[in-house]
Amino acid sequence: MAFTNEQIERYSRHIILKEVGAKGQKKLLNASVLIIGAGGLGAPAAMYLAAAGVGTIGIADADEVDLSNLQRQIIHATKDVGKAKVLSAKETIEEMNPDVTVNTYRTFVTSENIMDLIKDYDFIIDGTDNFPAKFLINDACVMAKKPFSHAGIIRFQGQLMTYVPGEGPCYRCVFKNPPPKDAVPTCKQAGVIGAMGGVIGSLQAMEAVKYILGVGQLLTGYLLTYDALKMEFRKVKLPTKTDDCEVCGANPTITELIDYEQAECDGVGL
Amino acid sequence: MLITVAGVKKEVKDDLTVAQLVIDEKVETPQYVTVTINDEFVESRDFKNTVLKDGDTVEFLYFMGGGQ
Q: Suppose A38 and one of A45, A85, A90, B31 were both cysteines; which one would form an S-S bond, judging by CB atoms 3.0 to 4.6 Å apart?
């Protein structure tokens, strides 16, 4: 596949990088990333991946755009209130970059559909807002041997980690099981500063791009934490001994996907 | 003795347990925090009987569920 003149100009700031080059840009154009949740994290992640020329972007979300989303979900605009988030996201991406094919899945992920959703993608981004979904994405990616980026945001804080099969701990190694409903505050209850999604979602896009290019060090084996009030990033090393993990360990006891009870984040617009 | 908690060096009393450290550090949801000492997980049921040693590095990893 040869670049058009327009593509050479569009991606010139990538192509000039020795870590990308024409070869890397072709890898991006041939790559596919699935973003689960088109919200605070998924919006910036999707936009940077689209602008970067990731050729196929899948977006899964069952929600519609709510006015209270617009403080942080920058892929949606005021005119989109009431529209399906996946449709609004697709329209924004198509305006940004015609090189990108957008696949939309207007659904929440469940144990029934997730394996089918992730199977054709190179990398998965968890942009969901609840623990049942986060554990489901983790377990499905472990079982399907798919790399993914976990992230979470609340108030002025954010975290992320990257799972690559065989290269370090999974989300369940660290957090074991979802906390009981309402035991840990959600964004709806506790609030979140809008730019937090921008910071952490953009870092998720960065991990996806690095994985596709095969450059640098991924956040495997580390949890990156960000405290915006202290303006402090910390890269916390995670334990390497994780062979007793219930899903990715030597003798997994979780061999089927679990639909945990949905937490309180299932209200409109979260 | 001197330990490192979330990247900060601290002078603490000898025989400090993880359970007491969690209280001293005002961990928001102590029953749901993941604790590591020197890059190894400590099960929450072991917080009470895990005594910290001089030079230990402790990390608290918190559930963060938001994203949409």
A: A85
Name the 3-class secondary structure at A219: coil
In chain A, what residues touch B6 (CB-CB under 8 Å)?
234
C-beta separation of B29 from B40 below 8 A = no
CATH number at residue A52: 3.40.50.720
User: pTM score, two decimals?
Assistant: 0.95
Residue type, position A93, single letter: I
Percentage with pLDDT > 90 across chain A: 91
C-alpha distances in Å from residue A23, one per residue of A14, A20, A46, A233, B34? 10, 7, 22, 32, 41
- Give per-residue pLDDT as tens, A170-192: 999 999 999 988 788 777 778 99
A/B interface, count of CB pairs below 8 Å = 88
**Contact map slice: B 26-65 vs A, CB within 8 A:** 29, 31-32, 34, 36, 39-41, 59, 61-65
On whether residue A139 sits in a domain, the answer given is yes
Which chain B residue's Cα is nearest to A189?
B66
- pLDDT mean over A12-36: 98
Contacts of B64 in chain A (CB under 8 A): 152-154, 157-159
Tell whether A123 is covered by a domain: yes
Q: What is the pLDDT of residues A232-255, one digit of tens each?
A: 999 999 999 889 999 999 999 999
Domain boundaries, chain B: 2-61
Q: Which of B36, B59, B66 faces A154 most closely, judged by CB atoms?
A: B66
CB contact under 8 A, A239 and B40: yes
The answer to whether position A4 is within a domain reads: no
User: Structural domain tally of chain A?
Assistant: 1
What is the domain class of B2-61 according to CATH? alpha beta
Per the structure, the complete domain to which residue A246 belongs is given by 9-266
Minimal Cα distance from B40: which residue of A? Answer: A239
Tell me, yes or no, whether A2 lies in a domain: no
